[in-house]
Amino acid sequence: MASHNPYASFLEKVEKPARYIGGEHFVTKKNWDETIGRVALCFPDTYEIGMSHLGMKILYDEINQHQSLLAERVFAPWIDMEKEIRSRGLHLVSLENFKPLKDFHIVGFSLQYEMSYSNILNMLDLGGISIWTKDRQEHEPFVICGGPCATHPEPLAPFMDFVVIGDGEKLFARVTHFVGEARARGMKRDEILFELAKWKGIYVPKFYDTAIDPMTQMEVVTGPKAEFAGVIPDRVQRYFVDNLANYPFPTKSPIPHMTAIFDRFSVELARGCTEGCRFCQAGMIYRPVRERNPENVVQMMMDGLKNGGFDEASLTCLSTADYSAVTPLVLELLDKLHKENATLGISSLRAYGLDERILDKLAEVKNTSLTFAPEGGSQRMRDVINKNVSEDDLLKTAENVFSRGWTKMKLYFMIGLPTEEDEDVVAIMETAAKARKKATECGVRNPTVTVSVSSFVPKPHTPFQWSNMITLPEIERKQNMLKDHAERYRLNFRKHVARISALEGIVARGDRRIADIIYKAWSQGARFDGWDETFKYDLWVKCVEESGLDTQIFLGTIPMNGKLAWDHIDVGLTERFLEIEWKKATHNRLSPPCGKVHGMIVHHSNLESLEKTFDIDKKKLVCYHCGVACDLKGMVEERRDFLKGMNSIEDTPYVQPEVLKKDIVELREKRNQAVGFKYRIEFSKLGPITFISHLDLQKVMTRIFKRAGLETLHSEGYNIRPLLSFGPALTLGISSLTEYFDVRVPAEWTDFDDMMKRLQTHSEPGIIFKAISVINSKTPSIQDSAKTFTYFVPVKNDIGTVVENLKSQEQIIIQSYSKKEEKLLDKDIRPMLIDIKTGELSLNEKIMEIIDEVSPCRMPGIFVTAKVTQGTSIRPSEIIELLSGKGLVVERPIKVAIELNA
Known about the structure:
Elements lengths: L36 E7 L3 H4 L3 H11 L4 E7 L3 H9 L18 E5 L6 H10 L15 E5 L15 E3 L4 H17 L3 H9 L4 E2 L4 E5 L6 E6 L11 E2 L27 E4 L1 E2 L9 H5 L4 E2 L2 H15 L3 E5 L9 H14 L3 E4 L9 H9 L5 E6 L3 H6 L6 H12 L5 E8 L6 H20 L6 E8 L16 H18 L2 E4 L2 H11 L5 H10 L13 H11 L4 H4 L13 E2 L4 H12 L20 H7 L18 H14 L11 H10 L10 E9 L8 H14 L16 E3 L9 E10 L6 H10 L5 E9 L6 H4 E9 L7 H7 L4 E6 L4 E6 L4 E7 L5 H8 L8 E7 L8 H9 L9 E7 L2
Parallel strand pairs: 1-2, 1-3, 3-4, 4-5, 9-19, 10-13, 13-14, 15-16, 16-17, 17-18
Antiparallel strand pairs: 5-6, 7-8, 11-12, 20-22, 20-23, 21-22, 24-28, 24-29, 25-26, 27-28
Helix pairs in contact: 2-5, 4-16, 8-9, 8-23, 9-10, 10-22, 12-13, 13-14, 16-17
């Protein structure tokens, strides 16, 4: 039996209903009762952020590949939706089968950011699950977490049944299957946890004792409880995938209906980083570096773009420029993407990271800006944090960028780093000002250099884990200093909210006692603490003060000879390595990237430079004996193979940008010229997809065309867009049997039936293509052609004489909201009403079922036909108000027809 969305009847009451409808392209919806292991993959932030997270896509794909296992997605509901759910006594449900969290075997949270922890408690409560582990009943799901923040899990330990440490791909499906089978066999909760606690990468907090360390004053884990000693490990080792070279990557993940934060197809290029930045937790806990085969990356990228219909792609990893085959890979991708009218985004750039040939290629698509992360303003600070980049590197990059036509650059820095002085803070803006000056020297008029500055928060498992964090007043003082210098140097300045950073510092190095503070803050209204508009700083301060905890334990300098709240988690690094790097930092000493030849920091863009860089027969490779087992020789051999497989860039003819630019122009509409062929397409928009916005509908339709392999003409200018033109926006939540859009294509369509079939094959649930007709440049737009709209309004009670009474009235006054005057005004809608009559819908059963998902339509109702003037008519909400005011109990209207002028 199909599961219906329990929120359908009130979705129009929330700001972004598309967050809660599910049913996306490539979604995996299984028969609930036919699976043995069921897991809810929970992301403790909004849909559009969680849907951009690669880790969630990987786990979703990995688990659902197993026929007996099921993974469904759950995201944190925004404040407005939480209010609606609670007021109705409903539960937080998944997006596939709309099952409440309490019905799953495992409820797993991805920990990406400490300021999302209050959302975890909120999701558990809304999902019908006991928040504290100690209160959880035998039948309740196992609540777990994973991700980078799970390597320091103590602030959440009292809420978690177990924690997955490290990479989850190969481990999580096994865990899900084991828990599902154990449940089916009737194993008790603690029996299951005891077995899991023996697994590598699994930490069960309740089986471990804690005590206050006299040196650090932290509540630390002292080891397994007496009854488990010798059976479960003293320290929990992380689990990791040892080789990504040929490891699969999902190319058919659910595609969000609404615009996600990163609205593109992304491929994880590598995991880990050789740079060794001392502030970077990810660079430490994801060692060793594991790269994907570049040939596979190309295939994954092109498959993902085609499958999803995306027009933008990106490569992601901690340091893209350090990928061994970055230059030949990016050059090949740019050529292939260019032919698909798609662009490439490259994240995590170092200032000296990109070959000039890559910049030439990127310049062809006229990206508006590039982003770099020097992190420290002065050379001394860059040495302290082990950022192997000089000011000359940065300025050379600025010259390379601005000389190729870019007008914008973004630079990321941090303040509050260990040993930082005021001159180091000022150097941030001085360095950025030099980059701006370089832009003017390159002929750029009014260049835009944006300086984004965050506050350093010391993180566990890094050389800076013992460092203090500067105070809130000091953060604000330094931010004001930066603001003054930004104005002086004509730079754009963005800063992270200081109060959020101050709280993050407490949670990031917190122990189990922090759990009480998180719980109290959540119970008093803390939600979305990483969002400026919802963060309640005073509430958190109150909860911290009431706890009686001395926060300097977590914010001050930590003694190096004491125990830490995360020492029981073994991420592979030795304490000796971290200590040496910390001491180097305090003496402004660099540690060149590991895995390179001693005395060389060379970016290898082809096979010859790689051979020179990794001359393993004659020179010794840099290794700091960090504790992680690395096969450096094997890594070099693998990278040689990668470059050979790409034939190296020297073997690939370099095509000048001017040659490539022609092709793009040919697919664009020439101004004031009637180029290509123009068609009007009729379609239906029914059911849950009616809750996506008008702009999102245009994006969805564009992706359908790309998936169907149907090329469109594109607009001119930097903001290239497909030439699709839609009619008046449809009200959210209103199903429509007839909508139109116009499209301009480069080649004539001769077989409309084939075109319809291709579009429908690659369509979204609820979008049904009905007809195609030929139009020309003189055909009025849909907006101008619309003559009348007809709605059917289902009515629950007896219609009686309402229709006849309305027909006889000379005036029908309703209250209508005026955006211009920002208030309700009286409005006479009688002149707009053409016809009103009773009747019933008689539609295809499949159509009725889709409409029924959001609006019951199998009942008598009223057909209302209204005049359209300049694209506007009576709004569905006004029809509802009119009929409700006459005592009728109505459902959502359904738009059944649009009449166009001939």
